[in-house]
Write a structure and sequence with these properties.
alpha/beta, 8-stranded mixed sheet, two-stranded antiparallel sheet, 16 helices, 10 strands
């Protein structure tokens, strides 16, 4: 796809409050429509993370005709890999791989986490880390639209990109003809505690699906109780094993309660069919399936040209999310979702372990309250999520849609994070951009949770 692209750079101020300050160069690619001239306005793609690069890993659906009549516009958000000042943190990347062999939520692990964040912060000491935020990125989008001489365009956003898209709608909504939000991160509520309902909803979805499949219900009775019990047992007595990954034989993995929850969040909707069997294996003394799947998410087992800009991740989370929620509020949401879990597990939100401690050393100021404003818009919107999305669950799509008066809400049964990666999801997204008022969602009715893998009786 990029072989046809026109590539360039957008030059923007680092800090728009300083008219004579330094500038940034953001990579931009415009993929021309197959029909020339285009017969519809372009679509700009906003990648997630925060910290994923829209050029290196664009959130573009498989070829379902999006580019037949429209130009497709990709941009590397400020601070990501292809920009002139990437906020990469190899110190944290190395720690996250090392964390596999540590007790996930132990205070000693948190100390090592903070040490890695501190080392990255010190290395980036000459960079204005506070200038890397969603508001500035939204202004970058306005500058890009104007530089391309566009009065209007459409927006596709994935994961954190939906946070940016909703903020951008508040700032430049008259220029947006339609917006598709895939895996919604609402800026008005996003914080550590926000992650817990998504994890709970995905677990409940897997448990319900197992009960509706007779073979699963018979082979794995009481699956939910088993999972909760294992979280508590592993938190008290972690299990250590080794797994062989491509290029990384003998990788040590420690499974405690927090690790088991993190494994589930990553597996739901992606490795769904094997979840009951993996939990049952773990319960019978075989941790290999869980450990291997969990480790594969943190160890680079193949060639990759994409790197998450973890420094950008922290600049956004530490200014826009963490300051807007107290520890008590965070724990209240955690206990509501999983009242049976030990406090040591509940203290570390899924996907965001020791984030408060990292933010203490990242030392960026709290963002203005405007970043938390609810987005109310009459722009045609598609809000699409997988039913088993344990990262940005369907409830958050419904939360946002109630203030988008011309929205269509779609939930893909049995799918997880990233609806654009699903063939039906990709078709729905393409259909929406073809007809925002009446997208074709007929393929959704045929989707189901995959048949669960049933291991032979012991």
């Amino acid at each position: 796809m990029l072989s046809r692209a026109r590539c360039g750079e957008l030059v923007v101020p680092v800090d728009r409050d300083r008219t004579d300050g330094p500038t940034l160069r953001l990579a931009v690619a415009v993929i021309p429509s197959e029909t020339q001239p285009p017969t519809a306005d372009p679509i700009v793609f906003l990648e997630g993370g925060p910290g994923l690069d829209g050029i290196a890993v664009p959130a573009v659906a498989p070829d379902v005709g999006l580019g037949r009549s429209r130009d497709l516009i990709l941009i590397g958000q400020r601070g990501t890999q292809t920009t002139s000042t990437p906020l990469l943190c190899p110190e944290l990347d190395e720690f996250y791989a090392r964390r596999l062999g540590l007790v996930y939520d132990a205070p000693a692990t948190g100390e090592l986490d903070v040490r890695a964040a501190t080392a990255c912060h010190e290395r980036l000491a000459t960079t204005d880390l506070a200038a890397y935020n969603s508001t500035e990125s939204a202004y970058d989008l306005i500058d890009l639209r104007k530089a391309l001489h566009l009065d209007t365009w459409s927006v596709f956003a994935h994961s954190y990109g939906t946070d940016l898209a909703l903020l951008y709608l508040n700032m430049d909504g008259a220029a947006v003809t339609s917006v598709a939000l895939d895996g919604v991160t609402p800026p008005s509520v996003a914080a550590l505690g926000w992650t817990w309902p998504s994890a709970r909803g995905a677990l409940d979805g897997v448990l319900r699906a197992c009960q509706t499949q007779p073979a699963c219900a018979q082979r794995y009775p009481g699956l939910g109780a088993t999972f909760v019990r294992l979280v508590g047992e592993l938190e008290r007595r972690p299990v250590t094993t080794t797994v062989d990954l491509p290029g990384h034989p003998g990788t040590q993995v420690v499974l405690d309660g927090g690790t088991l929850l993190e494994w589930f969040v990553g597996a739901a909707g992606r490795l769904t069919a094997g979840i009951p069997a993996a939990i049952d294996d773990l319960d019978h003394g075989n941790p290999q399936a869980v450990a291997t799947q969990y480790a594969a998410g943190w160890v680079n087992t193949g060639p990759s040209n994409a790197t998450v800009a973890t420094g950008l991740t922290l600049s956004i989370w530490c200014s826009e999310w963490v300051p807007y929620e107290t520890v008590d509020d965070q724990m209240r949401q955690a206990r509501k979702a999983f009242p049976e879990f030990p406090d040591s597990v509940l203290a570390q939100a899924p996907q965001l372990a020791f984030l408060r401690e990292e933010c203490a050393v990242w030392n960026v100021p709290k963002a203005p309250d405007s970043v938390r404003a609810v987005t109310r818009s009459a722009v045609p919107a598609l809000v699409i999520t997988g039913s088993l999305d344990a990262r940005t669950g369907p409830l958050w799509g419904e939360y946002v849609a109630k203030d988008l008066s011309r929205s269509t809400v779609v939930v893909l049964p049995g799918w997880g994070h990233g609806a654009f990666l699903n063939p039906c999801g990709a078709q729905v997204i393409a259909s929406f951009f073809g007809n925002p008022a009446h997208p074709d969602t007929s393929c959704v009715a045929a989707m189901t949770v995959p048949e669960f893998t049933i291991a032979p009786p012991r």
